[in-house]
Design a protein that fits this description.
303 residues; mainly alpha; 40% helix; Tesmin/TSO1-like CXC domain-containing protein; Tesmin/TSO1-like_CXC
């Protein structure tokens, strides 16, 4: 084990880190292993450990540095503080990983690395967390036309924070491996929910889940007003006091449309990707997925 630690510290790709970071390399790699999927922490769809490790070795100073912008803290191993410094490093890790799937979208602006993108959107008057969220939103927008379906999108900020909390829980337990008595933090405080002795994962905030549900309804469920203009209560959408959407069968004569989101009954006017986007291949796939059940009996969690 000592030889492994020494090899990590002597790795040429990690020499850009400060001495404090080099001394913390074992803890950094432990957290890197946890956040990319293990035990009770889910994997990122289509993003395996190999890919995360490669991206970490490519941008180590940006991902886990204590001097990103004007002394900001953010070392990946910091999982037990109240400043969320470790969470900031985790956001940079995830952002860099998803960046490689859409990096070509930023070439027109001569931005060739996630670090440069971060610097280009950085606003001094905003908090570190707000600046990280703005940076992630740029990557999230660039991914929109470059992924095959929504399962491959960059998770929401709330979902990432819940994932980070679960990772911190695992690390806290692992750190007690050499102790006779292990203390388990309260699961409800770390991205899980215990209800009637059943443990489930809190994947996202209620607000985001509601947005997803409404978006699914918008695109999949709608009225069947093929011949009418949706002006009366015979229209199912109007009856529910909702605007017609892409899932409706009504046409351009609809009077209950909410503007440009309303599509005609055919697919002729559905927006097609431009040539630049169309020529870019969808990103490469990796096979690591989390196939475990989302729910389990509470007592099984500690067995």
């Amino acid at each position: 084990m000592n030889k492994l630690i020494q090899s990590m510290k002597n790795d040429p790709d990690l020499q850009c880190l400060s001495n404090d970071n080099l001394d913390d390399i074992p803890s950094i790699f432990q957290m890197l292993y946890i956040v990319t999927g293990c035990d009770y922490v889910s994997f990122f769809r289509d993003h395996g450990k190999t890919s995360f490790y490669q991206i970490f070795f490519k941008y180590p100073d940006f991902i886990t540095s204590n001097n990103i912008v004007k002394g900001w803290l953010g070392i990946l191993s910091e999982s037990d503080n109240r400043e969320n410094a470790g969470f900031l490093a985790f956001l940079r890790l995830v952002g860099c990983e998803y960046w490689r799937k859409c990096s070509s979208a930023f070439l027109k602006d001569r931005i060739n690395s996630p670090h440069y993108l971060f610097q280009s959107v950085f606003v001094e008057t905003l908090s570190p967390l707000e600046n990280h969220y703005i940076w992630l939103s740029k990557i999230r927008d660039a991914l929109y036309c470059r992924v095959p379906s929504e399962e491959f999108f960059l998770p929401s900020n709330d979902a990432l924070f819940l994932h980070w909390k679960r990772s911190c829980w695992v690390k806290f337990v692992w750190q007690q491996a050499n102790q006779n008595l292990v203390h388990y933090p309260i699961l409800n405080d770390y991205g899980w929910k215990v209800d009637k002795n059943v443990l489930s994962i809190v994947w996202d905030s209620d607000e985001n889940l509601e947005k997803i549900s409404n978006n699914v309804k918008l695109w999949t469920a709608g009225c069947g007003c093929i011949k009418s203009n949706c002006s009366g209560n015979q229209c199912g959408c109007r009856k529910q006091r909702k605007s017609c959407g892409p899932g409706c069968k009504c046409g351009q004569s609809c009077l209950n449309s909410n503007g440009p989101t309303m599509l005609p009954s055919g697919d002729a006017n559905i927006q097609q990707p431009n040539k630049e986007t169309q020529d870019e291949p969808l990103y490469d796939s990796e096979s690591d997925t989390d196939t475990d059940s989302d729910n389990m009996i509470f007592n099984d969690f500690f067995s």
